[in-house]
């Protein structure tokens, strides 16, 4: 597949993995700053619904279909409708789950909107290309995108406040433990009791940067798209 993305798990969905674990892997190779200085994503709006709200922003969770083509010959290298039984893809915007050009191209987009975008190599796969998807080096890419949903992302203020029962702007082990129990109950899957403890320990290991036993608003809100 071309863009890397994590698909939420059923009803837990925008849940445990996306909620707490850092998303460190970028979809494309890192580019030197000079390579992207003159780069630009060209956006053509193919369809704009009468009601254009909410508009997407960094940190939002999007659901979309997209087809990818090589600008050089028009050949299709990716089609989300043929992947994962044709389900639209979920991903968090602006955090590197897709190539940089798509993160840029899908900003300020509303549900029901369709776009055709042209992405230069420096905002896609650069000089390396992506052999697995038959994308050659220095390839300009074209994507046709249809956006279905714009939701509050897993690091939103609303999600934080939902867990922060005592409203002290920090998440305790007890609060996160209770949240996990609620999510497990909602999901309905049978799990060994040790799974709860393992996930809880992993959450604090990856998010409690100062080691004080709490996850602060700053430590939690890694996407920096809302103010707490």
From TrEMBL:
Domain PPIase FKBP-type: 59-151
Pfam families: EF-hand_5, FKBP_C
InterPro entries: EF-hand-dom_pair, EF_Hand_1_Ca_BS, EF_hand_dom, PPIase_dom_sf, PPIase_FKBP, PPIase_FKBP_dom
GO molecular function: calcium ion binding; peptidyl-prolyl cis-trans isomerase activity
Reactions catalysed, as given in the entry: [protein]-peptidylproline (omega=180) = [protein]-peptidylproline (omega=0)
Domain EF-hand, residue spans: 151-186, 195-228
UniProt keyword Signal, yes or no: yes
Keywords: Calcium, Endoplasmic reticulum, Glycoprotein, Isomerase, Metal-binding, Repeat, Rotamase, Signal
GO cellular component, one term: endoplasmic reticulum
EC number: 5.2.1.8
Coiled-coil spans in chain: none
Signal peptide (UniProt feature, chain positions): 1-32
Source species, domain of life: Eukaryota
Keyword NAD annotated: no
Name of the protein described by the UniProt record: peptidylprolyl isomerase
Species: Steatornis caripensis (Oilbird)
Taxonomic lineage: Eukaryota, Metazoa, Chordata, Craniata, Vertebrata
């Amino acid at each position: 597949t071309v863009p890397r993305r994590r698909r939420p798990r059923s009803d837990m969905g925008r849940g445990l993995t996306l909620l707490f674990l850092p998303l460190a892997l970028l979809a494309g190779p890192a580019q030197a700053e000079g390579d992207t200085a003159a780069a630009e994503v060209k956006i053509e709006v193919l369809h704009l619904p009468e009601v254009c709200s909410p508009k997407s922003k960094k940190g939002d969770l999007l659901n979309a279909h997209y087809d990818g083509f090589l600008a050089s010959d028009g050949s299709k290298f990716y089609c989300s409708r043929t992947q994962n039984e044709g389900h639209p893809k979920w991903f968090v915007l602006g955090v590197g789950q897709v190539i940089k050009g798509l993160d840029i191209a899908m900003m300020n987009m509303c549900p029901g909107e369709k776009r055709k975008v042209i992405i230069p190599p420096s905002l896609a796969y650069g000089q390396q290309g992506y052999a697995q998807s038959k994308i050659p080096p220095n390839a300009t890419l074209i994507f046709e995108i249809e956006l279905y949903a714009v939701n509050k992302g897993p690091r939103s203020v609303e999600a934080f406040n939902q867990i922060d029962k005592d409203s002290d702007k920090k998440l305790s082990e007890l609060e996160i433990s209770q949240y996990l129990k609620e999510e497990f109950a909602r999901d309905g899957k049978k799990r060994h009791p040790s799974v709860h403890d393992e996930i809880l320990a992993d959450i604090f290991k990856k998010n409690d940067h100062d080691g004080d036993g709490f996850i602060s608003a700053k430590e939690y809100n890694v996407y920096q798209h809302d103010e707490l």
